[in-house]
Amino acid sequence: MSNPIYADFHVHTRFSPCGHRDATLTAMIARARAKGLAALGFADHVTPAPVPGCDFYDGQQIEILYAEHGIINAMDLPADLTVLVGMEADYTLAGAGCLDGAILDQVDHVICSASHFHLPAAPRPRDDTSEARAELMVRMAREMLAVPGVSVWAHPFDCTAMRPLTPIIAAIGEAQMAELITLANSRRVALEINGGPAATSPAYREATAAFFGLAREMGARFTVTADAHHPDDFERLDVALSWAREMGFRDEDFLTVDELRERR
Question: Rounded to two decimals, what is the model's pTM?
Answer without folding.
Answer: 0.96
